Structure formats: structure tokens, C-alpha cells
Amino acid sequence: MPFPPKVRIVEVGPRDGLQNEKIAIPTGIKIQLIENLVDAGLTYIEAGSFVNPKWVPQMADSGEVFTGISRKPDVTYAALTPNLQGYERAIAVNANEVAIFAAASEAFSQKNINCSISESIQRFQTLIDAAKSQHIPVRGYISCVAGCPYSGAVDVHTVASIAKELLAMGCYEISLGDTIGVGTAGQIKNLIETLARDIPIEKIAAHMHDTYGQALANIYAALEMGVSVIDSSVAGLGGCPYAAGATGNVATEDVVYLLNGLGIEHGVNLEKLIHVGNTISIALNKSSNSRVAKAMSK
After folding, report:
1. Nearest-angstrom CA–CA distance, 99 and 251
2. Which of 144, 148, 171, 240 is catalytic?
3. Which residue ranges does the record assign to the Pyruvate carboxyltransferase domain (predicted)?
4. Which of 61, 127, 174, 231 lies 20 to 30 Å (CA to CA) from residue 265?
5. Residue 92: in which H helix or E strand, if any?
6. Dist CA 199 CA 192 (whole Å)
7. Separation CA 56–CA 20 (nearest Å)
């Protein structure tokens, strides 16, 4: 299959990237990060999450972030919402899209949200019903698609079954998350091939963490399969508390550099993006995890 001519980049840095930072990040810095990302050409920003702040204190100010953004037309400002209460909070501050999440591992589901996979999916029905009535798009995440930190290998047919169920409930797209970054290109290709037997390829997105340094190879494999939506995090922000040495999401800068080399359209200005990544890294008192940013900033 030929590469897609255009890729939509889903920027998850302001949510997935920042949520594991231990030191409280000022709301103003989060708002500036989002506005800078939009200025660099990104049109889909996961701007926050409306989970219980007791569990994810870094996201406690997501409401203030959403109300403080200077919004631009044709940009999606999305929120992660675990339940109807979180959905209602997100809609109250004008999130124009929401995302829900399920795990492909029973052990991970129990450890992470204290219920089975099927129970977690059933909980989303009232949220999706509300979103349908208000014409709010719902995106679905599946975590641990390539491996679980508690139970090891994950069955591709389990992933496919969850994906089909989420789509049937009303999700418009399924993002396949290699949460602990253990996947390899062959494994990801096999996974997508399996899902594509029953699911249109345009409804599949790739969300790769780079713990084992395989994220770009896995994204390349997904592109080869025709996947045209890639999740990434500026400066490689993020990390997984369930995997020793996890380095978090693939860096958006590195994804853009890969797409440039393949001649795939994406709409992002790489130089501006590198500046955004370096700026937020300085604010967090750390170095950028983007190899492209490091190479081009010398």
C-alpha cells in the first residue's frame, strides 16, 4: 500500500505529555504551549483532561486552560474524559472534541481503573450518548496494544474486538496506544493488518511511545499500512509510570522530520515547532527528548 499523501498529527503534549510532570506547571505556561503549537501549524491539540484531580493533579486546572486559550478557527481543542462527569466539565469549557480510553489488557484495566475491560467500555455508553445528542465527536484510545507491564503479551484479536466495539458505540476513530513502548514494526504491522480486515484504515491512528527507541519505526510501519493519523508529543514530553525507563511519547519534531523525508503533507512548520519544544523544555527545566531538535539546535 502506498504512503498516505497527507497525515493529521494529533498533538498530545499538553495532556499526555505534561500529566506525569511532578512539579505543578503554571496554567499560563500550559496555555502558551497550546497557542505556540497552533502557531506552528498543528490543528489538533489535546489540551487537557477532566479526570479526578486526586489521581492526576497536573490536570486539575484543565478548565482554566480551556477558558484561557485564544482559540483559532479550524483547530480542534480536545479533552480526555473518563466518564459523564468529566465530559460535562469539558463541554462546559467548550472542548470541541473528547476522547475516551480502554485497555487491551485485563490486568492493566484492573490496575489502572479498577474494573474489567468490558465494564470500562460499558461505562462510556452514557458519555457517548450525551456526545451524540450534542454533536460532539468522540475519539477512542486503546492502551497497551503491543504489551502490558503486568501480563506481558497482548492478543491482537482482543485489540480488534475492543476497537470494533468502540466504533459501534460511536467513536469516529481509534488510536492504538503502545503505552509502554515495547512494540516493534513487524508487530505493529500485523496488528494493523488484523484490524483492517474489519475496520476502515482511515479510522485507525497510531500512538507510539519510545521507551525502546522503536516509535518512529512503528510509525513508519503504520504509514506503510495506510494509517494517516499520528499522535505525538512536542519535545517527546511524557512518560509511563508503569514502565521502567519509559521516555514517553514520540517527539512531534521527529515525526515531522520523518514525514518531510517521505514527502507526506502535514502542515507543520518544523523550525517553529522546534522552538516550541525547546521553550517548554526550558520551562520544565529539562532537555528536549526530540533528537531532531537536539541536532538542529546545535
Report:
1. 21
2. 240
3. 7-274
4. 174
5. helix 84-92
6. 9
7. 8
Task: Please tell me the chain's helix, strand, coil percentages from 3-state DSSP, rounded to the nearest 5.
Answer: 45, 15, 40
* Mean pLDDT value across the chain: 94
Q: Bridge partners of 148?
A: 152
Is the domain 8-296 a CATH 3.20.20.70 member? yes
With cut-offs at 50, 70 and 90, classify the pLDDT of residue 246.
Answer: low
| Residue-by-residue DSSP string for 97-126 | EEEEEEES-HHHHHHHHSS-HHHHHHHTHH
Rounded to 5 degrees, φ, ψ at 18 are -90, -20
- Cα Rg of the chain, angstroms: 18
Q: Which of 141, 129, 50, 124 is nearest to 91 (CA)?
A: 50
What is the tens place of the pLDDT at every residue in 197-208?
999 999 999 999
The domain ranges of the chain are: 8-296
